[in-house]
Amino acid sequence: MWALDKIKGTTTVGIVCSDGVVLAADKRASLGNMVISREVTKIFQVDDHLVLAGAGSVGDILSLVRVLRAQARLYKAKVGKEMSTKALATLTSNVLSGRRYFPYFGWFLIGGYDESPKLYSIDMAGGITEDKYVSAGSGMEFAYSVLDNEYNEKITLKKGVKLAIKAINTAIKRDVFTGDGIMVVIISEEGYKELSKEEVEKILKKL
Fold it and tell me: ∠ at Cα 42 (38, 46), nearest 5°?
């Protein structure tokens, strides 16, 4: 039960926009009712146009990221091009499915840009779904209340960033396991970009 509880100790959000994908997460790491860290990274660049966000055990997330980065480099060396978002999501699903009896305790979002933006949600047993928007973690109910109300398929990256920040901020206000700042990453045709702390705070002030 303790391990399953760890999966919920954060909030992550992914949004598909007309011109890219936004991934956002809080920065708090908790264990039970104790805050372990206030500066945890939960979104990781896997390749130029590929990103993973994880809600769950920090150690397991980092371990999976190392595996995926190595596989992405091998794929690029053999094939001569970057792995697609769907291929990375399928690889992640296969890795998690193969470890179902000794699982990575986490819920993972895979975002990327190929010919178009893509977003996948993958549970700890390897179950995979393609989504237009998704949230995972202990504050997901609060994030979904914002996403369900405000998302539309024509949303731009600029507005998608604001929506992702609003969704995470709503979770921070209501969920004790979510907090200590917001990390935001966008993936577009140009590649990976992480918003600065100042950029995020500027948007927060206008919400």
Answer: 145
